[in-house]
Amino acid sequence: xxxxxxxxxxxxxxxxxxxxxxxxxxxxxxxxxxxxxxxxxxxxxxxxxxxxxxxxxxxxxxxxxxxxxxxxxxxxxxxxxxxxxxxxxxxxxxxxxxxxxxxxxxxxxxxxxxxxxxxxxxxxxxxxxxxxxxxxxxxxxxxxxxxxxxxxxxxxxxxxxxxxxxxxxxxxxxxxxxxxxxxxxxxxxxxxxxxxxxxxxxxxxxxxxxxxxxxxxxxxxxxxxxxxxxxxxxxxxxxxxxxxxxxxxxxxxxxxxxxxxxxxxxxxxxxxxxxxxxxxxxxxxx
Length: 286
Prior knowledge:
The chain has a domain at about 5-40 and about 80-170: Ku70, Chain: A, Domain 2, CATH 2.40.290.10. It is built from seven helices and nine strands. It has helices at about 75-85, 120-135, 180-185, 190-200, 215-230, 250-260, 275-285, and strands at about 5-10, 15-25, 65-70, 70-75, 90-100, 105-115, 135-145, 145-155, 160-165. The longest helix has 14 residues, at about 120-135. It is extended and about 70 Å long. Residues about 240, about 245-250 and about 265-285 have low confidence and may be disordered.
């Protein structure tokens, strides 16, 4: 069972869907530890002053941003914390886009969205509506004090939240200076037909079980062989996710009607100030 990162709600219009966010991937691979070959002692990382070559204490380390050559702006921990985006527990849907309009280069990290108590029906509604529309939900979300754009994607029976890279994090293909003779190469019809036929002959349905990383397998097989041969060396020893009560959905149909009437924005209650209406909605979200 994947661990829950945080609990909150998916919000679109006036509808809040209580969800739990969980990683959809797991890192596989080999972590090599550093060991002193002379004494078999573990080797750790040190904070070294690059000019003096001496180790420095953590309390003497500050954060600096290069402003000009060899000149830095120093920022305190308080200043950095103040710049963090406000932490929320909401996946705030801002619009719906066609899947093919999001280049795959922008897709970053996937997470599963699991429905919490009282949110199952609205969760199923959003998933089915996205499937039928052929669109993805574009959303704002804050994870680990970092602001992200993300897309909510229907996949099989679940909803997946996939964070997106920002526009300035994706390089333009123009940076690689592709030569015109490559970009605009003239390909003969016969060559193209043969290439298309080869693609057709090698085409198959995607099956993730057929593809796996082989390096880790070979390293662990080697480790097992060495262990069975007695080649072992003795080496010296060297916050839960916040709970949230989730959002209570009173009347899903009514919330949908009101969201449509307000074009996805909260409508102001007649005869009441806007503040009282917003406070009422927030109380439902816990």
